[in-house]
Amino acid sequence: MLDAFSSSFLVFAYLATAAFQLALVFGAPLGEYAFGGKHVGVLPNTLRVTSAASCLALIAIAGHYAAQLGWFEPILGQTGNSLVNWVLFGFAAFQALINSITKSQKEKRLWSGPTLAMALAAFLVAF
Fold first, then answer.
1. What average pLDDT does the chain have?
2. What pTM did the predictor assign?
3. Contacts 24+ apart (CB under 8 A), 103-107
């Protein structure tokens, strides 16, 4: 039951993060909350392309957790699924670390809590 709750939380969290990245792609003036906070306002085109790639990756990760909930047909077998869960935990832990040590206080305040919660939930799913 805890793993189902954690997977549901991760689907929501990764889709919300993907929506944030998509807003950056379309020119939302939120640059100080992403990529180290070095670009106040609208991101330059290179980082907007990076946000587009991030958005797609985040949607794929949300799809992985949605498949675990039975919303989609899983692509991987049990062993592959377990391996991917641990890789995604490592990714979430890395995100939490990066967002906790960033020099941008606005980015840190926005993302430290959610990324830490995502790492904890990813650990519960992988464990």
1. 94
2. 0.92
3. 103/36, 103/37, 104/32, 104/33, 104/36, 104/37, 104/38, 105/37, 106/32, 106/33, 106/37, 107/32, 107/33, 107/34, 107/36, 107/37
